[in-house]
Amino acid sequence: MSIIRLRDEDNARRILVTAVAGTAMAGALAAGSAAHAATTSIIVREGCTGVSGQISFQPGLLSARAQQVRAVLSSTTSGCTDAINGPQAGTGSFTAQLAGNASLGAENFTGTFTINWPASAGLNPSNGTLTVTQSNGAELVGGTITNGAFTGSPMHLTFVITGNTGNGSRNLPVAAQTFVNSQPLQVTQNLG
After folding, report:
1. CATH for 42-190?
2. Which of 6, 97, 154, 172 is least surrounded by Cβ atoms within 10 Å, i.e. has the fewest?
3. What are the φ/ψ torsions at residue 30 (nearest 5 degrees)?
4. In terms of Cα–Cα distance, which of 126, 123, 131 is closest to 153?
């Protein structure tokens, strides 16, 4: 009788140890799954390494003071690549209609944009809303695509000014600026 009892106690210990180990393993797997779910998988879904063009201002930008300004940005994109389909031949365009309070040294615009992807991409244009702010000599562009290709995705671009038409004085306000990107135009998606 005591031998049977000992075997039952040994089995009970084995079952308890197995249950505790199983619970620990399930907890570790659940924690790993939660950690995996909390990590985001953000990819550059579509991007263009080259963006260059011009911004025109009405009225022109002044050095001495900020004022309400309307601006039109027009540029050509190149070096575009899709994360799924790879590089795309040809060029596209990035345009924007902007308005805001701006001076030659400080810009703060909001507006709408259109990205026409290269014809080889076979994509509809991406349209959306954006902001453009100046920081340490760079123009930071950020927006969201509201319709067309990649609806709901964020868009980012950073560019620097390469030339001014005008000097920012009252007699010669800056009517236009040329620019080139310092960071690529990117549309990102969270595959989360």
Report:
1. 2.40.350
2. 6
3. -65, -40
4. 126
pTM beyond cutoff 0.70: yes
Give the helix ranges, DSSP H, for the chain.
2-38
**HSE-up of 102 (CA within 13 Å, CB side)?**
28
Say if CB 51 and CB 94 are below 8 A apart: yes
Report the number of secondary-structure helices (H) and strands (E) in the chain.
Answer: 1, 9
Q: Hey, is 184 helix, strand or coil?
A: strand
The candidate with the shortest Cα–Cα distance to 55, out of 10, 3, 111, is: 111
The SS3 assignment for 27 reads helix
Average pLDDT of the chain? 85
d(CA 28, CA 152): 35
Residue 163 structure tokens: 């030339």
CA distance 52 to 180: 4
Q: Are 147 and 112 in contact (CB under 8 A)?
A: no
Mean per-residue pLDDT, 58-83: 97
CB 164 within 8 A of CB 179: no
